[in-house]
Fold this protein.
Amino acid sequence: MNAPLRRVGVVVMILFGLLFANLNWIQAYKADEYRNSDYNGRVQVAEYERKRGNIEVGGTAVALSKETSGKLKFQRSYPGGAMYAHVLGYKPVNLGDTGIERLENDFLAGTSDQLIANRIKDMFTGDQTGGGNVLLTLSKRAQETAYKQLNDNQVGARRGAAIAIDPRTGAVQALVSMPSFDPNPLASHDTNEATAEYNKLDKDKDRPLANRALAETLPPGSTFKIVVAAAALENGVTQQTEIPAGSSYTPPTSGQPIRNAAPSICPEAQVTLREAVTDSCNTGFAQLGVRLGADKIKEKARQFGFEQDDLSVGESGEKGGLPVAASRTGEMTAPGGGTDPAALAQSSIGQRDVRMTPLQGALIAATVANGGSQMRPYLVKQLLGPDRTTVYDAAKPRELRQPVSGQVAGDLRDMMVNVVKEGTGRKAAIEGYTVGGKTGTAQSGPNTPDHGWFIGFALDKNGTPVSAVCVELEQAGSGGSAEAARIGGRIMAAAIAEGR
Amino acid sequence: MTAAAAPAASPASTGEQPGVRLARSRRNAELSLLLLAMVLVAAYAATVEANVLDTVTPDFWIPAAALGLVFLGLHLVIRWLAPFADPALLPAVALLNGIGVGFLRRYDLAKAAPEQRESLAIFAGTGGRQLAWTLGAVILAAALLAIMRDHRSLSRYAYTLGLAGIVLVMIPAVLPGRFSEINGAKLWIRLGGFSIQPGEFAKLALLAFFAYYLVRKREVLSLASRRVLGVDFPRGRDLGPVLVVWLISLLVLVFEKDLGTSLLYFGMFVVTLYIATERVSWLLIGLILFFGGAYLAYVLGSTVGGPFANFYDRAQIWLDPFAEPYDRGYQLVQGLLTLGTGGLFGAGPGGGQPTLLPEVQTDFIFAGIGEEIGLFGLSALLVVYLLIVERGLRAALAVRDSFGKLLAGGLAFTLGLQVFVIVGGISKLIPLTGQTTPFLSAGGSSLMANWLLIAVLLRVSDGARRPVTGGGGPAARPSGGPPEQLHGAPTEVIRP
């Protein structure tokens, strides 16, 4: 029996040798892969060892970390709840992070290259310095106003967006997407709860997670007429040039007549461009567009920022940020490249395949207010070190492009001011300020209510632009654009009040 | 040992010259090794506290000292009742047991809220319970040493033990799921808040029966054979009991949904059969039967499902755990990540995150420990296991009677196989099955059964190393019983 016993001894040695070899495979060869695996909760535990920095708006923390007794040492919380959700995003334990939390993750977590001095210091002192702080450009009052006014809109719209920017710099003053969501449950350390909440939001048919202000496009309706007007002004038309109008216009190749929003609007055969803008004359702009041709309108729209698909809103530099969807003009020509007056006519009043983000609308208004210079929009004002004294990155406003000359911008500004003074945008007026704007009503479908739009700007007594805004109320129906104008005025007034 | 069957196994190789070389009891060596083991356990506890609490409390040594006292008691019992027992067994097992208790206390600390950690009672939680179980298990082992003064007396109860073993194996399979099922495996008897794993004890009882049965039958099994393709195969009628055990292990596989236990029983049986008969054909038959059965269960699981589905699932997880990392593969994936995080040197005792690993106190304790002591530490633990197994096999080599050889050899191999099954399972070498890691995992059944196993090995090694001419030696005892007759009797073999 001893020979087999010895062989059994050898077999056990071989079995243990296999275990040893396999442990070598796992703990030596695969160790790095397993240690840094996405499924490895320790990666996150390590991330939660250091206190994450604040995200602040006007001196108030809107995202902050509190110490807990759990295995993840800090709990992220968002005191503003749903109000700042689409800007801040969220930093969940088990899901992907979004928004500024994602953009500035390295700085907030304290792992960015900029903060290496702190980490080296920590190595010697044994302390754990927290992450850096991110200060946003948002105006607290403008953001609150935008959030409340949008959600309490008087036309019962359930979806929409509002964005306000400083025309001189591109700094975003307010950014709200409706409906919003509370990011706090998503940051719960109970990952089941967080996942359940995420799934609930993800399945909601109103898509609260979507950032409508930046990443969703809708037909812009009459707000697009500013682009057509800019193209016209550059092609020999002035404010006082008489253009053909009328109560109805049927493009040469199509039986569908284009009408005005009300019979009282430009029934005359001829109106001036100024009157056409003030009253939002569809027949006038349809014929103007057909006269100008697709190329000129598309080129002008492109110069205003349409078709740009790599814009993002974050830091003032090119670092990346919250993704912005490209606004599109669509094809205004017949298949094969021939002219298609019907498509051109409908596109000229912001219908057919024209699609615009609220950000693009605000940029158009801001460009007009800023003398034709379009500034790059940004959200991060400053990166502030963990010690709250060292400033790492202060925003440097940069011009994005120059869509129109100063003179054309001046003409557009005059006409838009007239819209608020005596046209469709009267509700946007602000006491003591010169407000200009353009309303828009866009058909959303054969049997659904129209979208309401307003793009506008405010100038102070010296003619200096202080705020530009775009409000969009999805499927708001009748009165939507007037309500959008009212909300736009309130947001700009709040931004002005805080800036004063 | 029969010259007719195996001429090579001469008396010289059987006895290992016991009277000359092994006359010293080496009890003092055992005591000093035991002290060394307890010092290691205390150092482990201190490191854990330094890492988890940032300070070493004045009480850190208490669990190690309590364990030390318990083991010291067993050492004294061995001095008195089995003075020639192998001196390496007790310290090696004590070290594993101590590390197990230390890690479980470390796990309690990790689960407790930070502000309660420093005041966490020493005898509370899983760690404290494991300490109590250790005391119980060691008392049981000492009792076995006291009752069983000669391992051959065990053979008198062989059939009783065999029957008890089968009943113990079958109870969880027969019981309704709510009394026997935990995490999908029906291995338990649950009464109130209390649960025992009868299979842990069954393996001891069954092995004692196998050893007895095979000693009786070994001549027939090894000699009556038919030659096919150059390999001697046994006669059909002699295959009967083997097939019965094979069926039982497959039933365990199917109805208790546990591949590990099934592999354990079958491997145990085949290896004792091989040791008894010295026939490679038995190993071949056994391996073919087991892998054939497992493959059949896999195929049936994928097509028929039903009771085979669980096995099919486990095989799927084993083949690609990362396919469903948050679902079915979660445990195994987390086990692998935990081991990988440990790397070569580990995070240091107390430096890991055991709470992230499910079942870290039982099935996955080896991975949990591995995160903190790394590849080097785990290799050391494997060496300690290997040492225990090889010392057990050595006792089997040295003991003079066939029953003792089979008993010690089978038990030692079973222990090694169990370590292989669970450690291989959590490290994705073989499909994962719920087995306890001997002496480390939390749980009284496993601890008691394995300490009983060690007591038997101690008893056999005592018999093996006891000087033959000592007068009171087991060989000289008049009341030897059947095994001794077998041992001494000439064997008559008639080839058909």
